[in-house]
Design goal:
The complex is a heterodimer of chains A (330) and B (193). With 330 residues, chain A is an all-alpha fold. Helices cover 67% and strands 2% of the residues of chain A. Chain A is globular, with a radius of gyration of 21 Å. The chains are: A mainly alpha (330), B mainly alpha (193). At the A-B interface, helix 5, helix 13, helix 14 and helix 15 of A face helix 2, helix 3, helix 4 and helix 5 of B.
Chain lengths: 330, 193
């Protein structure tokens, strides 16, 4: 009985968890996001105060202001979103020369690093939006979640397609896509990302109704499968070779271990999604002690940045190799 | 009874505080460990390079220097797929050289593309002085073979096409010889293909 009450309450909370600030189209409109803004049925920070749902932070208001550019007026938010969203195109852009010249060598050697790492970056950026919104109480950047999700899907599908064509594993296309267990994990991730991509539009959101959000929670399955993919790919160690990050000529193999990078990023992203933690943060913010929240999460965020910086480093290093069609096999 | 109910509506934040404290402590410990580890990067870098046989002043990847292992790995990464592609194209040519002019020409054209792509990739590697002459000879042999294969692909008849076979085989053997020399110089294993 108690369980059913809890379940009903969770459902109610889920139903109420459709906050979209007015700036994105006014009351009654909903900005479709590819990924859910919450996990495990957590309450939004303002569940107890519905009147605050349309409240905007000062930054949100500032972002709504137009400025004149050429002959038209543009919102500051639009410019900021474009600037923040543009880097997500980088992985696909870096593979463009190899695609245009049909350079199978570059695809065979570095597409998994360039597009695979790119997909990981986009996934983390997508998952970063909600914790940052929780911490800052700003919502102007929420549309980025959808954008990063779409780019993550494009990179993942591109990676799988190229791997299916150019990898040299035995067993035909299926062998190249799922011939090893780590590949199978990647293949399942790509299969899961396809329905997310297809339903990342307002029409699908309307049609699916309450099931849409549940469907979008597949993102968390992808997040977990990525861990399995990396464990199977690199193991838990950091030695050169099969159980680690390979030869790290710069002397810091630990920082280049992808599983460690993933863990460093995920600790922040997961912790700030946990309902009790969100409640604590909201409570401190209501008390006017936002500074305490920031001070508390500094180590978590610093660890996230450390892991993320090395993922980006990997993307730049491998991506430039792909772009110049001199791929690195490291 | 939960804290929320016991507190009569008070925010149930204890669990959140505990989780956050534990996570942040873990993160802080990892950061400190990372900082300590990072302080030794310079020494480990030098040791790793010395152990792997650093080739000074070679920096195709923007690094301080390139090790023989990195160089061999880079070379194998371009050579192996190129060789696989060429084997496939050669097999397609052999299958069609006596009966299908168009298919044989297509196979040869694909061969030329693969040879040229290999040449471009090879030019992107900076070899150490000891290996550079061999690499240059390989590039020249590869160019010569690509030129000959292109001429062969332009043949108007199957008989004319086959008349190139011997010369192409000789040119291919020259490429193979240079490849073996480079592999030996880089001390990389021979590919199974």
């Amino acid at each position: 009985m108690a369980k059913s009450l809890v379940g009903r309450r969770a459902e109610n909370e889920l139903a109420a968890d459709n906050y979209q600030p007015a700036p994105y189209g006014g009351p009654g409109t909903r900005e479709p996001d590819l990924y859910p803004d919450d996990v495990m049925g957590a309450r939004k920070e303002d569940d107890h105060q519905p009147q605050q749902r349309t409240a905007k932070s000062r930054v949100d208001e500032w972002m709504e202001v137009d400025f004149k550019f050429g002959g038209s007026r543009i919102k500051r938010k639009a410019v900021a979103l474009v600037l923040l969203g543009a880097p997500a195109l980088a992985p696909l852009f870096l593979m463009l020369p190899a695609l245009l010249t049909l350079n199978s060598n570059t695809f065979a050697v570095s597409v998994d690093d360039t597009l695979g790492t790119g997909a990981e970056i986009c996934l983390f950026l997508c998952l970063l939006v909600t914790p940052v919104a929780t911490l800052t109480r700003q919502h102007w950047f929420i549309p980025l979640r959808r954008w990063y999700g779409i780019m993550m899907a494009c990179c993942a599908i591109g990676d799988a397609t190229a791997a299916g064509i150019t990898d040299d594993f035995a067993g035909g296309v299926f062998g190249r896509l799922a011939g090893h267990v780590f590949e199978l994990m990647g293949f399942i991730m790509v299969m899961l990302v396809i329905p997310l991509l297809i339903t990342s539009n307002p029409w699908a959101q309307r049609k699916l109704g309450r099931y849409w959000k549940r469907l979008q929670r597949l993102t968390y399955a992808i997040w977990a499968l990525l861990a399995a993919h990396l464990i199977l790919l690199e193991g838990f160690g950091f030695q050169s070779g099969a159980n680690g990050s390979g030869f790290a000529g710069d002397g810091d193999p630990i920082f280049h271990q992808r599983l460690y990078q993933y863990s460093a990023c995920s600790l922040f992203l997961l912790t700030l999604r946990l309902p009790p933690v969100k409640r604590w943060i909201v409570a401190r913010q209501k008390e006017g002690r936002g500074w305490l929240v920031y001070m508390t999460v500094v180590p978590l965020f610093a660890l996230f940045l450390l892991g993320f910086a090395f993922i980006v480093n990997e993307e730049i290093f491998k991506g430039i190799g792909s772009f110049t069609e001199h791929p690195s096999a490291e | 009874m939960s804290e929320a109910h016991a507190g009569g509506g008070q925010e149930p934040t204890t669990a959140g505080r505990v989780i956050l404290t534990a996570s942040c402590s873990l993160a802080a410990l990892l950061l400190i460990a990372g900082l300590i580890y990072a302080m030794g990067i310079g020494g480990r870098h030098q040791a790793a390079l010395a152990a792997a046989g650093c080739e000074p002043n070679l920096s195709p990847s923007g690094r301080q220097c390139t090790t023989a292992q990195m160089l061999a790995s880079h070379y194998m990464a371009i050579m192996t797929p190129a060789r696989q592609q060429l084997n496939a194209d050669e097999a397609a040519y052999t299958a069609n050289e006596r009966g299908n002019l168009v298919a044989a020409q297509a196979a040869l054209t694909a061969e030329v593309t693969a040879e040229q792509a290999f040449g471009r990739s090879l030019a992107g590697i900076t070899f150490p002085p000891a290996v550079a002459p061999t690499a240059k000879a390989l590039a020249q042999a590869n160019r010569a073979r690509a030129k000959l294969t292109a001429e062969q692909a332009g043949s108007a008849s199957l008989a004319h096409l086959r008349s190139f076979n011997h010369r192409v085989r000789v040119a291919g053997a020259a490429v193979q010889t240079e490849m073996k020399l480079i592999r030996k110089a880089l001390d990389s294993p021979s590919p199974a293909a």
